[in-house]
């Protein structure tokens, strides 16, 4: 979409908003919005919201002469939680020996599974995934056990202002190929994956987390979590 004198050009869907009661002041995670004006979509238009969330979204204010007063993009994290938050098991979910792969991607326009026989093989098989309430899934069979995969996801990316196709590993992976290039379908309850003596090993009791250092060495504390202190030369 592009700005115009009367709002924006290039929008596929346009919905009228009405000013309603101020935003509640007691909603966890959104306390900063408490008391601010609320713009509401008409009930009849709410079925269009899922489609809106798969593309660029803007809010435009116009005056009585239909001239643009202001315009802004929209942060959609809150509505994604409201519509698509789920307790459903994600990643590789097993029913006996049959795996189902599930991916939470509510803003995706399409999703498919690229299945490989090995960690670096070029024999990809594409399996279309089905979307339901923000979760995309593909049901496999016993032959999928041990195979590698990537998700191919078509999605709008605000930072590039474009619809792109990403080829990515599974964010819920429990096994990965070298250098995390591909995810692997494994069942962690499979006895074949356990090292010898895994079920009978006697683990030492650790009273405090900081004591968990091999050989009784002086505990080493790692402070930085990602970007928290990685560039802080005083740490």
Report on this model:
This protein has two helices and 15 strands. The protein is extended. The protein is 5% helix and 33% strand. It is mainly beta. Strands 9, 10, 13, 14 and 15 form a five-stranded antiparallel β-sheet that branches. It has a four-stranded antiparallel β-sheet with strand order 7-8-12-11, with no helix packed on it. The protein has a two-stranded antiparallel ribbon with strand order 1-2. The model has no long low-confidence stretch (mean pLDDT 89). It starts with a strand and ends in a 51-residue tail after the last strand.
Salient structural properties:
five-stranded antiparallel β-sheet, 5% helix, 235 residues, mainly beta, extended, 2 helices, 15 strands
In terms of topology, how is this protein built?
Blueprint: E1 2-4, E2 7-9, E3 17-20, E4 38-41, H1 49-52, E5 58-62, E6 68-73, H2 77-84, E7 91-95, E8 98-104, E9 108-116, E10 125-128, E11 130-132, E12 135-139, E13 148-157, E14 162-168, E15 183-184
Antiparallel strand pairs: 1-2, 3-4, 5-6, 7-8, 8-12, 9-10, 9-13, 11-12, 13-14, 13-15
- List how many beta strands DSSP finds: 15
Mean residue pLDDT: 89
Percent of residues in beta strands: 25-35%
Question: From the structure provided, what is the oligomeric state, counting identical versus distinct chains?
Answer: single chain
H-E string: EEEEHEEHEEEEEEEEE
The biggest beta sheet reads: 5 strands, antiparallel
Helix count, DSSP H or I runs of 4 or more residues: 2
Summarize the structure in short:
The chain has two helices and 15 strands. It is mainly beta.
